[in-house]
């Protein structure tokens, strides 16, 4: 019985990861294009990232809460911790741009693309185990 419960949890975790990747692929694809457009129009990379990040976090809350993790706890609690987690994600994204673009001179397009992947992986762990964790 315990083995079956462990397999069921693993299966649900894989399903959550797949749903998270689908929500993220859609929102990040659109967000990356907007990032490139803002930068192309002369916007600073960190300003472009900030605008895209805030928009993506706001829209991602609905998809991740309702579909990815199927959270049924109070919206206020999950929203608070969701945006707290995104604060750490934003800080990490900003730091990666600062270090690799401003300090080392790498192209912001490449750094932002890599940062999106790194931040997404960190956020999945935070969302699964801290924000939308199973009760009990």
* Number of E-type strands: 0
Count of structural domains: 1
Please state the average pLDDT score. 90
How many alpha or pi helices? 4
Q: Helix amount, in percent?
A: over 70%
As a whole number of angstroms, the C-alpha radius of gyration is: 16 Å
SSE string, helices as H and strands as E: HHHH
The main pleated sheet reads as: none
Shape: elongated
Unreliable parts: none
Describe it for me?
- With 136 residues, this protein is an all-alpha fold.
- It has one domain (2-131).
- The protein is built from 4 helices and no strands.
- Helix 3 (75-103) packs antiparallel against helix 4 (108-131).
- The longest helix is centred in the first third of the chain and has 39 residues, at 2-40.
- The radius of gyration is 16 Å and the shape is elongated.
Summarize the structure.
This protein has 136 residues and is an all-alpha fold.
Strands, helices and their partners?
Blueprint: H1 2-40, H2 45-68, H3 75-103, H4 108-131
List key phrases describing it.
136 residues, 4 helices, single chain, mainly alpha
